[in-house]
Amino acid sequence: MIHRYIFVVGGVMSGVGKGVTTASIGKILQARGYTVTAIKIDPYVNVDAGTMNPVEHGEVFVTDDGDETDQDMGNYERFLDIDLTSMNYMTTGRVYMTVIDRERNLGYKGRCVQVVPHIPEEVINRIKKATAHAKADFTVVEVGGTVGEYENILFLEAARMMHLADPKNVQFILVSYLPVPKHLGEMKTKPTQHATRTLNSAGIHPDFIVCRGEQYMDKPRREKLSVFCNVKPNDVISAPDVSSIYHIPAMFEKQGLSDEMLKKFGVKPKKSDLSKWKKMAEVQETAQKNVKIGVVGKYFESGDYTLSDSYISVIEALKAAAWANGARVEMDWINSEEFETSPSKLKNLSKYDGILVPGGFGTRGIEGVIATVKYCREKKIPYFGICYGMQLACVEFARNVLGKKEAHTVEVDETTKDPIIHINPTQLKNVRENRYGGTMRLGAYDCELKEGSIAHKAYKQESVSERHRHRYEFNNDYLEALEKKGMMISGVNPQTGLVEIVELKKHPFFVGVQFHPEFKSRPLRPHPIFKAFIAAALK
Ligand code: GLN
After folding, report:
1. Which residues form the Glutamine amidotransferase domain (predicted)?
2. Which of 100, 146, 213, 216 can pair with 178 through a Cys bridge, CB separation 3.0 to 4.6 Å?
3. Global pTM?
């Protein structure tokens, strides 16, 4: 089997949507009937994204096999509707760690181990392994960072070496940015020309240049870039801002990108079928119904940090669920700390069709979340709690229904009399010994569903598998007491007896899940619980 590789690198600046571009390139090849996989390379030294502050890094996307990766992996999974593994993700830290471990085990048989070639060689090994595992016709590899940076040079070197070894089966795409300075009102190509030259100096020539920008690129600029960057005019692709990222694959196809790519690879193109995808992208803009969801949590007020980056999978899952219900979702981000300083503001929650509390960590804004839960429970507003949102729903229930006023999660109150959410000895040891990297309960675990529950009705299955990322868990000592008072434990992990889903019986929709269902939601296959939540909210 011939494997073909497409490296996507960034020029000019970061934050122009290289991840979505990579996912879209994968999509247009997949839409032609090829098997496609995707790899994300993050040039930082962290071994994974799990130890990074979301303010700095955005969402930590968790794979089935429990890797804590970059949010772009979520874009790949959503666009390609495939499950990726830790093989599809690497960082500088991870690559070095493998090479150093190998050296310690005499894996280099006494040779001098050097940055070049041994680091790029390990990068290549990893790319090839992930490709073979996926039996991929095409692997799209996104090299994080921007060309010209110190950090990603070794990854570019790996890409260059792969091209040298097999030029016919390796292509490069430069994703660049064409600014339109206000005082000029004209799209400027010079930064892209420089980026191309910088890439050239790494021994790499782009096969295509994808030009991000606020507007479409006109013909003169296309021609200019063609001449100055040494790329045919047809291979300069315009990628203006669009109303939804899901329009991007079709936008590329309109400009003939996959045809050109396949031609260059020497592959006779199969027919493209993007129809379902395009329809989905349309529905989101034509849906008549509106559903208003309040997302409540503690939020970080920090410079240019955007919330949407930390909860991108939750947002996309809500959108997908809304489309599946023929509706459009409107989201408001509500800082739970508001309710601590002015509890009267809680009544503002009544204007929402549903409230969602996503995952989180730490102590800030927690009482505000608990007050939110109480409000939704009593006022019968559809409530969906994810991970921390589930744990705090249990705390609220223990306090206000069981009358255990001091009930808490030990994450916030280590010495609480009623640790309704507690920590198991292994996790406690991790925390005490400062072993934070990759030590949470991570990845896919089975969950058995109780018949007749909301969850069971939503999934229409007895047993499901969902992805996790948490350290604390429901304390089964309180299980009976809770059930007696009307909280249903509707999902349990059969191997450990850990509580995975709780819900309330006398409520239109009150569900808390210990896992992160958002990671398994796909645009064309929205997650069953998200779908049920939106359906309840629309009622
Ligand atoms: N902070 C909680 C825990 O560690 C919940 C984590 C989460 O919401 N992802 O268990």
Report:
1. 307-535
2. 213
3. 0.95
